[in-house]
Write a structure and sequence with these properties.
- It contains 1 helix and 5 strands; from the N terminus they run ββαβββ.
- With about 70 residues, it is mainly β.
- The chain has a 5-stranded mixed β-sheet, with no helix packed on it.
Length: about 70
C-alpha cells in the first residue's frame, strides 16, 4: 500500500487510487476548481489522469470556497 503526504498529513492510499484524478474523486473534489501540486510542482488539469502517485509523494490540494 502506498502512503503519501497530503496537505501535511500522511495518508494511506486505497488500492483504487493510482493518479491525481483518482485522488480527487476519493475526496469528492473532481468537479471543483482546485490547484494540485506534487513534490512542489504544479500539475495541470490535463495531466491529472496521467500523473501517477508514488509512495512518499508530497501532494498539496488547494480548493476554492465561495463566499463574501
Amino acid at each position: 500500500m502506498k502512503s503519501i503526504q497530503l496537505n501535511g498529513k500522511t495518508i494511506e492510499l486505497p488500492e483504487t487510487v493510482h493518479c491525481i484524478q483518482d485522488l480527487l474523486e476519493l475526496y469528492k473534489l473532481e468537479n471543483r476548481i482546485v490547484v494540485v501540486e506534487v513534490n512542489k510542482e504544479i500539475i495541470y488539469k490535463e495531466q491529472y489522469t496521467a500523473q501517477a502517485l508514488s509512495n512518499r509523494d508530497t501532494v498539496e490540494i488547494v480548493h476554492f470556497v465561495g463566499g463574501g
